[in-house]
Design goal:
Structural class: alpha/beta
CATH topology of the largest domain: Rossmann fold
Strand content: 5-15%
Number of strands: 12
CATH class of the largest domain: Alpha Beta
Strand order of the largest sheet: 2-1-3-4
Number of helices: 16
Shape: globular
Helix content: 40-55%
Distance between the termini: 52 Å
CATH superfamily of the largest domain: NadA-like
Order of helices and strands: HHHEHEHEHEHEHEHEHEHEHEHEHEHH
CATH architecture of the largest domain: 3-Layer(aba) Sandwich
Number of domains: 3
Length: about 350
């Protein structure tokens, strides 16, 4: 018998989830979210589906319906291991494409196909081909924040968390690094490899300034500033720690700074602070307009209709998948070295 997703008993069954988010979601908002949360969690069981949610998703998605959470690397790695028939990507379009590349036989749903990324839109496959002509024989590393078409033209992918390891794994004196100019500059500071860059920027991270951070520091004693490497170099120089979203989260959980300012998309602070009682979060609020296109309502609609589904041209998918899998192979190799 089909489940009645508006049954009050179903809504009561998710009441315990409010405990996870009560610090960051007001009481008055929970009755709006609860029916969707109840329906989504029932639909996941019906459809044998899992929800992958990026760290920038809102708390009601991240803590109440997601099965797998993390940064781009974590989502890519764990997407491979799921036994579900359906994957819903609560993130942006390139992440859904990456999940589909790694799970070609599964249904991968993107609740809003217009949830894009300024980095992905900053470069095309034709741009990569021109760079290869300009720098013959130089390997091309592409950030996962790119389309499948761009990945297909590259040698290997990377994320902000493993970019340095990927660049150095190639054994080349020169590397083309696409498309994030600021992440490339951050990697270049840590390696002797010559980095050839592209002028792509994240529209969220590029808005932060060193002056803004210094004003926060002046107003708060004992403030620790941690920043994402997609930020401009002067912002990184002003910060106390630089890392991927997963590394930023680990820093807060392990170091427990008295006050922390996370220089990244502002839902990240909400998601981390929801489970941390002894750290004060100072919040500069730069929202990603693309991440915020994903809502409980359209996740529910996507599961009900099993659409929109991500499809990738098979010829492109074969080449793009190889670039992503090479990245994952480097990670597995590093883990083997550590274990040994």
């Amino acid at each position: 018998m089909p489940v009645n997703h508006t049954d009050p008993r179903s809504i009561e069954n998710v009441a315990h989830l409010y405990e996870r988010v009560k610090k960051v979601i007001p009481d008055i908002e929970w009755p709006i979210h609860a029916p969707h949360i109840a329906a989504i969690n029932e639909l996941k069981r019906e459809k044998n589906a899992v929800i992958l949610a990026h760290n920038y998703q809102t708390p009601e998605i991240y803590h109440c319906v997601a099965d797998i959470t993390g940064d781009s690397l974590a989502l890519a790695q764990r997407a491979v291991d799921t036994d579900a028939d359906v994957i819903v990507l609560a993130g942006v379009h390139f992440m859904a494409e990456t999940a589909k590349l790694l799970n070609p036989d599964k249904t991968v749903l993107m609740p809003d196909l217009d949830a894009g990324c300024s980095l992905a839109e900053s470069i095309t496959a034709a741009d990569v081909r021109r760079l290869r002509e300009q720098y013959p024989g130089v390997p091309v590393v592409t950030y996962v924040n790119t389309s499948a078409e761009v990945k297909a033209e590259c040698d290997i992918c990377c994320t902000s968390g493993n970019a340095l390891a990927i660049v150095e794994s190639l054994g080349s004196d020169r590397v083309i690094f696409l498309p994030d100019e600021y992440l490339a500059a951050y990697v270049a500071e840590q390696t002797d490899v010559e980095i050839i860059t592209w002028q792509g920027h994240c529209e969220v991270h590029e808005r932060f300034t060193a002056e803004e951070l210094e004003s926060f520091r002046a107003g708060h004693d004992d403030l620790t500033i941690i920043a994402h490497p997609e930020c401009p170099p002067d912002v990184l120089a002003t910060s106390d720690f630089v890392g991927s979203t997963a590394q930023m989260q680990d820093y807060v959980l392990n170091e427990r700074p008295a006050k922390v300012l996370m220089v990244t998309e502002c839902s990240m602070s909400d998601n981390v602070s929801a489970g941390v009682d002894d750290v004060e979060f100072i919040r500069p609020c730069n929202l990603c307009p693309h991440m915020k296109k994903i809502t409980l309502a359209n996740i529910r609609e996507s599961l009900e209709s099993l659409s929109p589904a991500i499809e990738i041209d098979p010829a492109i998918a074969v080449r793009a998948r190889a670039a992503v899998e090479r990245m994952l192979d480097v990670g597995r190799s590093k883990m083997t070295e550590v274990a040994a």
